[in-house]
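Figure 2 data, in text form.
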Amino acid sequence: MTDLWSYLKNCKKPIVLYGTGNGADKVIDRLNADGTKISGIFASDGFKKGKIFRGFTVSSYSELAERYPEMVVVMCFGSSRSEVIDNVKRLMQKHTVFVADVPVYGNTVFDLAFARQNAKKIRATHSLLSDEPSKKVFENTVLFKITGNPNYLFEIESPRSEVFSLLNLKNNESFLDLGAYNGDTVIEFTQNVNGYSAITALEPDSRNFRKLCENTSSLKNILCINGAAGEFCGKATVSTQHGRGVNLGVGNTQINTFTIDALSKKNPPTFIKIDVEGAESAVLDGGKGTVSALKPKMHIAVYHRSEDIFEIPLKIHTLCPTYKIFMRHHTYLPAWDTNIIVI
């Protein structure tokens, strides 16, 4: 098997990047380190045209397609929007198209060397998964990360309703939402239960927190906390210049941090969602007591760091070997919105 980066390094056709931003920065850094030539960058027609990004004038697709009829396209950003997905599929009819899976956090790319270094953990994670769809999601996600071929992801998409079928939530759940954003997952939770006993929603970004409070103001028995989940209780510095999330450990804004164990004292959770921008593993370390003793159902993001897809399921199994672990991927390029469901 050849990974994406080796293919591009040896590619004789012009390589053009689709998209700008943090993802494109990481792709360019890797291609430059490999000595791989980049022939251009484009964005959607009329979007950021003429902007200079990393020394390249951002073009439109049509301009580069006319200049390089046989170009190879590398998508360098993340999206679940149907118009973007449809555009990628149209591009695939005309060109060789890859979607670069660079980590949202950290700098370790899931290439072939990384897969070989972690082969034992990858095999162990595969064996832990509790149904065949989960094993297929895991297999295809690993193959996608290595090759950048989006067809691997198109084959494993599933609706979010399937997650709630697996969770089988009851009418007296106590929900702990870590990374509550603007309240979208709190609302989703309430729409999939007939009732609940309590909701605790944690969101570190001040702007998102205001929206969270506004969007959930009509709900009863809910506690919204402007703070971050972590391994320890205390304070941390954060940067809020990272899309919808915050980046712990950098920046100059101080925020309170809370562990699962601390948050669970008043309202012991029966269901926990963890989507905390790359801090998922640390957050689990701060919830060892709760997870081991109460065995709450959990929904955990496993896509922020390259190692999350195997390290987090393995950690869950260590904390509570009787858990059943499922994995599902919802429509997204690259392999974002890939999560484990733990029951």
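Caption note: The chain has a mean pLDDT of 94.
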